[in-house]
Amino acid sequence: MSDDLPEGAPPAGGPPPDDAGTPSYVPRGDTAGGVRGSTAATAAPPGGEGGRLRRAGRHQSLLERRFARMGWFFAAPALVVVLAVTLFPIGFSVAMSLSDVTVSSNGFHLSGVTTDNYTLLLGSARWQHALAFTVLYTVGTVVAELVLGTLIALVLERLSGSRGWMMALLLLPWAMITVVSAQLWAYMYNGVYGVLTAVSEGLTGEARQFLGTPGPAILSMAAADVWKTTPFVAIIVLAGLMMLPKDVVEAAKVDGAGAWTAFWRVRLPLLRPALVIAVLFRILQAFGIFDLPFVLTGGGPGNATESLALLGWQVMFTNLDFGPGAAVAASTAGLVLVGCLLFLRAFKARVGDEESTA
Amino acid sequence: MASHEPRFRVRFTWVHGAALLIAAFVAAPLYWMAVSSLKPQDEIGANPPTVWPDHATLANYRDAFVENNFGVYLLNSAVVSVTATILVLGLSTFAGYALARLPLRGKAPVMISLLMISLFPTIALAAPLFLLMRDLGWLNSYQGLIIVYAALNVPFAVWILRNFFLGIPKEMEEVAWVDGASPLRTVLTIIIPQAAPGVFTAAIFTFTACWTEFLIALTLNTADRFRTMPVGLALFGSQFTVPYGTIFAAATVSVLPIALLVLVFRRAVVSGLTSGAVKG
Fold first, then answer.
1. pTM here?
2. Which of A98, A183, A226 to mutate to test the interface with B (most CBs of B within 10 A)?
């Protein structure tokens, strides 16, 4: 925090710690020796120790108030833009989901307050399926990516010479347009001329239809996701591994821990902050997944790979049912928020509090 | 500096084997994309597929730019992404500095809210933003997407920059403060010159996010002339055949700027990825 900003001893003969506009806090007759060195000052306090402490406090609060004003002035434009483009729409989404929405040439008209949209949702087999699929997909891909990413990070940690190039390569899928990777995987999965179809035929003797039936389609989509985002997890974990204090691991080895025990009991717990954030990012992304199913499977076959976001978008922008669509969107957002808070709570992560841990 | 050991002494261990496997796993689809972009139409659909094109051609690239509107999509993406990135940097540098250094109450809630917002499912924003932009007459425009992209990327940029500012030694600013410099002057003369690497990292992240965003672009800019590249690539082609050759030519071009950024500024990207993760 900033409470250590102007305290301590400014160099002797240095300028007064605040500008000339607000000198009232400086006690009369104390300007010569007062600000010089706190030890000298406490040795001969003219107004007693309490007075000096109080003066120090007031001195800080004046500076702080001035700086805080500037701070909000600095932060306000960014916060205003963010709030205008996100909070207002979120509020409007919730309002839409709770009313009858009619669309006309003059725009949207919201009338009444009703929970009909949510009732419709809860009773809808399509929504139930989308919810189940999204949850399953999120858990499955995040777990797979976490395990694979950690393994990759452990390999890269041992690779000394060419790690830089490996990391650059690993960043490529992550930085790629998801639509591009979806098109690419759709091509590779193609039932007639896809390279993966040909490979599976060569290996097993039968041509596999990757996207034609629900089960394989879900797994195929998950594989495309794992390919794209495991590298992201690997890099975060690798960075975490490299920041671990060396002596702790050494101490564990001296104490007779094998490589496995040292990893499982010592390094993994220390990695927790890095893993928690990586997993949090991935949960949020996977739960809101839209572009991958939109391009790769179109949500099919049937509704097998229809995520909540895809369902919400289609209800709103294909069927033009904005009330129920908003209910899908708002409930998706609500579920994400609740899920993340539960996750953070379970892992006791302190986000935004890193001054105390850094 | 060069090691004194001769090169052939380096032994090939299981680590190298595993690393090669990982590299192959990551690179194979990328290879397939690049190679397919060089295949003529009949070879794209060949069964079994060819590992290297028999008749390598650049026709797909010509098709993408001349026959299809790929050049327009590319331009739209570039205009929107670059402008939004500049806007984000302008807003987030000051906000990040304030949240790192200045005595504000409620920093932690602000930072957590920003993190939540930065990863909020955009589906919840799509319909209201569509309405808002329609009322403003900004559907199928640059400014509509730019302002939305800026707002969606400010939170993460603030996170990156704040973490970066926390890592800069405080002493120089303190001296400036004691000398009576205002925070504004401190930022302009002391912080910004030191912040270049952090600003740069935030820029790469923002640019990448804008370059790849799909849902909002699909919703707000539906006219072909205003489509961004991801939307153009998703909707390429007719109802019956997917022109994969053309798509992959376009896709390869779309990967190039990002690949270049990532390869050249690997360090900045990694430090940005981890500034949120490792310190939190």
1. 0.81
2. A183
